[in-house]
């Protein structure tokens, strides 16, 4: 990505607000409204439709320091990979399936989900 493209995205993000646009290293911006729909469809079963978590299934993503501290690119990679139940960092004992259990989710769709999550995360 050239510096003009990066500057343009920086200006757009500052004008719109970081909660509405997530920008990864490749310059893709996600759509929070589409992300909310996708989140509810693929992630809501474990993380709750409001992303506040479901006891013994999925963590509250609105207050997750783990997700909040990751870059968008790192979070995309984590969602793509998932987390097995036997992972030492898995505190629920429930596996998080790769790509939210839907291998056909595209990177753009996952970016939409990430943008949605960024828009609802507590600062």
Short description:
By secondary structure, the protein is an all-alpha fold. The chain has helices at 3-16, 32-42, 44-47, 65-69, 72-81, 107-120.
Tell me what the structure shows.
It is built from six helices and no strands. The chain is mainly α. The chain has one domain (29-120): Cytochrome Bc1 Complex, Chain D, domain 2 (Orthogonal Bundle). It is globular, with a radius of gyration of 14 Å.
Notable characteristics:
mainly alpha, disordered N terminus, 0% strand, single chain
Which CATH architecture would you pick? Orthogonal Bundle
In CATH, the topology is named Cytochrome Bc1 Complex, Chain D, domain 2
What's the gyration radius in Å? 14 Å
Write down the secondary-structure element order: HHHHHH
In percent, how much strand structure appears in the residues? under 5%
**CATH class term:** Mainly Alpha
Mean pLDDT: 83
User: What best-fitting shape do the alpha-carbon axes yield?
Assistant: globular
Q: How many β-strand runs? A: 0
Q: Report the helical percentage.
A: 40-55%
Largest sheet: number of strands, sense, barrel closure: none
**CATH superfamily, please?**
Cytochrome c-like domain
Distance between the termini: 29 Å
Task: List strands and helices in order, with pairings.
Layout lengths: L2 H14 L15 H11 L1 H4 L17 H5 L2 H10 L25 H14 L3
Helix pairs in contact: 2-6, 5-6
